[in-house]
């Protein structure tokens, strides 16, 4: 193409060669090197005046050098009076740091976007941003291409009986991506959720009295359900022994027709010394009489993922959908049997995080301060209204002293499972999801598919050693050593040079990127 210059950084020269081959051109000469002190040196070898410049630079194992090299190349082309400068980033650096995950965290992806804008970039082309909201970080146009059409085409071509497969999300955060692929293939989907058992340390107050905002942060003994009965004035005069005999023992009082009555009110107690004994065994209590009135039946319940107002009737336990929920135990990153001994620290809440030995600070006794002091597995930014992202789920999943509960929602029995996510880096959650589908869900074959393969030396070897994983399918947005790819018997790499080359061609000729998807069927 005339008037186009395609530059290649040092991060992924093989991908740049494939892109230029499809465009019918060659990479533009550019001298890239380092000074003796490690500083990066860039010298553009040809004139770029009034040309459309495309700089292909992806992430790499030396991510900081790749970012600085790209910024210097952008600024050098800007100084050379280029007509436009487009940064082609198959994998956007620091994309997983697109939001604050702690009070003093940094939004590093936004900082990288600002640096690119200051350097002089006029357009950005990338593939499957970790968070689609990152497109707003730039003051310039951003084309966020999607590899999903190519992945769906590969599945239809290479996976046997793909029409009966199930697309599985290995965490709750990737549900939207999984459902999109399932809709494209017109197949079912499932979700795997992994979380550590959490309990409050003895003697530490919660200090969230009469609060339902932080419902899930309290221990079972602190949650009490009160039911107001329609007792008459004569019933209130009964003695404590009569009330003890008539008090119901189950957690939910059943009605005559077999259904469960819904709780009328919910109160969360903040007293760590509160007894779990029903009031019928303790005798009458004047404070309870003043607060709730006489003739009150108290039933203890345990917190769950639903609010008390959403409790269903007892008949709903016979629902067919309940059979598609499978729960297992996860220890040191692997699914174990129910009779496997529990780790020593699994019953201690935050034992692996609160190991500094600091005493309880009375200044954090406020329920807001207590909640804000929770770690990232509870919230982003210190509040309980947002769950932690999937990037931190690997932390502690292989800790031999902790036990996790893994839940599979969906039917994968005797089916092919396709575990889908955008990034594959650490393998703990991938192996846990695969073992859950095979050992618990009785799936017959598992494909692990990711767009960005950020493998290290151990990750690919761990996936190779897992007997529950049959194939690992990734794209070439991130550079990978050819020796490593050839030595793996499970690894399959999908080439995205056709997608990126067509995006560059349409960008140069003024074509629209949304119409790119139908063109993929011709590749």
Q: Could you explain the architecture of this structure?
A:
Helix 1 crosses helix 14 (497-509) and helix 2 (63-79) runs parallel beside helix 3 (108-119). Among the domains are: 4-145, Rossmann fold; 147-199 and 323-340 and 393-480, Rossmann fold (3-Layer(aba) Sandwich). 25% of the residues lie in helices and 20% in strands. The protein is elongated. The strands form 4 sheets. A 9-stranded mixed beta sheet has the order 14-13-15-9-8-16-17-18-19. A 5-stranded parallel beta sheet has the order 1-4-5-6-7, sandwiched between helices. A 3-stranded antiparallel beta sheet has the order 11-10-12, with no helix packed on it. It starts with a strand and ends in a 14-residue tail after the last helix. It contains 14 helices and 19 strands. The protein is of the alpha/beta class.
């Amino acid at each position: 193409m005339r008037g186009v210059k395609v530059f290649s950084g040092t991060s992924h020269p093989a991908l740049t060669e494939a892109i230029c081959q499809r465009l019918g051109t060659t990479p533009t000469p550019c001298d890239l090197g380092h000074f003796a002190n490690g500083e990066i040196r860039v010298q553009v070898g040809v004139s770029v005046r009034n040309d459309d410049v495309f700089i292909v630079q992806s992430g790499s194992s030396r991510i900081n050098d790749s970012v600085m090299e790209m910024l210097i190349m952008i600024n050098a082309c800007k100084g050379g009076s280029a007509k436009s400068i487009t940064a082609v980033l198959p994998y956007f650096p620091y994309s997983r740091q697109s939001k604050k995950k702690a009070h003093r965290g940094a939004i590093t992806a936004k900082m990288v976007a600002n640096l690119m804008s200051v350097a002089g970039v006029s357009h950005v082309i990338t593939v499957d941003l970790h968070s689609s909201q990152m497109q707003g970080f730039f003051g310039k146009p951003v084309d966020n291409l999607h590899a999903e059409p190519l992945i769906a085409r590969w599945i239809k071509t290479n996976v046997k009986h793909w029409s009966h497969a199930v697309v599985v999300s290995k965490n709750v955060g990737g549900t939207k991506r999984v459902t999109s692929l399932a809709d494209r293939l017109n197949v079912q989907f499932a979700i795997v959720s992994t979380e550590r058992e959490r309990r409050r340390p003895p003697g530490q107050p919660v200090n969230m009295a009469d609060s339902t905002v932080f419902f899930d942060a309290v221990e079972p003994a602190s949650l009490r359900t009160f039911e107001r009965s329609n007792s008459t004035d004569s019933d209130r005069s009964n003695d404590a022994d009569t009330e003890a005999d008539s008090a119901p023992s189950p957690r939910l009082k059943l009605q005559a027709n077999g259904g469960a009555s819904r709780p009328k009110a919910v109160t969360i107690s903040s007293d760590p010394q509160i007894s779990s004994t029903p009031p019928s065994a303790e005798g009458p209590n004047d404070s309870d009489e003043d607060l709730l009135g006489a003739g009150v039946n108290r039933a203890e319940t345990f917190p769950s993922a639903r609010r008390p107002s959403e409790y269903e009737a007892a008949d709903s336990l016979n629902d067919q959908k309940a059979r598609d929920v499978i729960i297992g135990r996860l220890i040191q990153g692997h699914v174990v049997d129910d009779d496997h001994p529990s780790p020593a620290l699994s019953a201690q809440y935050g034992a692996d995080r609160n190991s500094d030995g600091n005493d309880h600070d009375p200044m954090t006794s406020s329920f807001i301060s207590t909640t804000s002091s929770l770690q990232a597995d509870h919230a982003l930014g210190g509040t309980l209204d947002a769950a932690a992202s999937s990037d931190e789920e690997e932390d502690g999943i292989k800790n031999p002293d902790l036990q996790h509960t893994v839940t599979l929602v969906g039917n994968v029995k005797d089916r092919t499972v396709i575990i889908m996510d955008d990034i594959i880096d650490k393998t703990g959650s991938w192996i846990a999801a695969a073992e859950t589908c095979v050992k618990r869900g009785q799936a017959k074959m598992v494909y692990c598919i990711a767009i960005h393969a950020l493998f290290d030396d151990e990750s690919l070897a761990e996936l190779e050693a897992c007997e529950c994983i049959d194939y690992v399918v990734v794209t070439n947005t991130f550079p990978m050593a050819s020796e490593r790819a050839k030595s793996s018997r499970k690894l399959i790499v999908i080439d995205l040079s056709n997608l990126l080359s067509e995006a560059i061609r349409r960008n140069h000729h003024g074509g629209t990127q949304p119409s790119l998807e139908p063109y993929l069927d011709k590749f």
